[in-house]
Amino acid sequence: MKNLGFKNKEVNIPKEWKVYKNNFIDLEPTNSNPIDDVWHYFQEDILQASYKDFFIDLGFYGEYLDNRKGFFKLVVAKGDFGKGELYEKYLSRSTEEVKEKLEFYFNLILSKSFENLSGLKYGEEENEEEYDVYSSINKTLRKLSDEDFEKLSSL
């Protein structure tokens, strides 16, 4: 694996958050570097952080080695996967969009205004698919069509 000197994306993470992993590189999936040199930056485990019962998880999903297909998936939840509440599931191919969402939630969760928000309870989301988009802030659950999913994966 070549070290091409990429730096982490500059994300303002408040000191109250415990960061377990941060391999969020300032590199777009559509970069022009040889795919064999950069594929390892686009894995499922990119960033994990927690504050009290809340956690934020960021990964890259899809077949990056197959023509750079895939997208970032950001999950904001309280409790554990499988138990607790889902507050946001966001999909994007833009590191800047993901950075903005990360910073928004890092700060919002620290604010008192977040305490009154309820999320989608795990176990009660039988209509929610793995790659649907959900936001408790906007109160939306958006089903992605196969066409939408393909567009998102390979822009």
Describe what you observe in this structure.
The protein has 155 residues and is of the alpha+beta class. The protein has helices at residues 35-38, 95-110, 146-154, and strands at 18-22, 47-51, 54-61, 71-78, 85-92, 120-121, 133-135, 140-142. Strands 1, 2, 3, 4, 5, 6, 7 and 8 form an 8-stranded antiparallel sheet that branches. A hairpin with a 6-residue loop joins strand 4 (71-78) and strand 5 (85-92). The longest helix is centred in the middle third of the chain and has 16 residues, at 95-110. The radius of gyration is 16 Å and the shape is globular. The two termini are 26 Å apart. The model has no long low-confidence stretch (mean pLDDT 83).
Instruction: State the low-pLDDT regions, or none.
Output: none
Using DSSP, what is the number of strands? 8
Strand content: 25-35%
The H/E string reads: EHEEEEHEEEH
What's the story with the biggest beta sheet?
Answer: 8 strands, antiparallel
Rounded Rg: 16 Å
Fraction of residues in H or I helices: 10-25%
Mean pLDDT: 83
Structural class: alpha+beta
Q: What coarse outline follows from CA principal-axis ratios?
A: globular
